[in-house]
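User: I'm writing a short methods note and want a consistent example. For GNAT family N-acetyltransferase, I'll paste the sequence; you return only the structure tokens, no commentary, since I'll be parsing the reply automatically.
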Amino acid sequence: MQLQLLPAQDSDFETLLALRIRALRPSLEALGRFDPQRARERFRQAFSPARTLRIELEGSCIGLITVDRSQDPWALEQLYLDPSAQGCGIGSHLLRQLLQEADQAQVTVRVDALRGSDANRFYRQHGFEQIGEGEWDIHYQRPFRLLH
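Assistant:
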């Protein structure tokens, strides 16, 4: 498996937007909140090529990950995989790498997951604990673990 993380460019916006929409659409539809224009606007506001990596498998873009490491805790802002790439361990692999970096830096990692999304189960399986709730999101954090 040839998995690569490549820096995002401004020109990746449309590709990454389409991927994010494919990943989020089922969860948003279940909440009655899917709106393609709103999805575009939200992604435009949040898109930071400097913090975003394209996830590529065998030369095809299958996801994106965005982490804000500028403060403690780090914010895992986005981790989206194309539905065709979900369930085969790629997300777990990437999250374990991030958590290992956080443990080395001794920082907590925070993430929000859309209420009702499978992402909630995914983050809990990786040691994240719920710390709050918003109208649409559940807030999690995973404290760093001391390395021995």
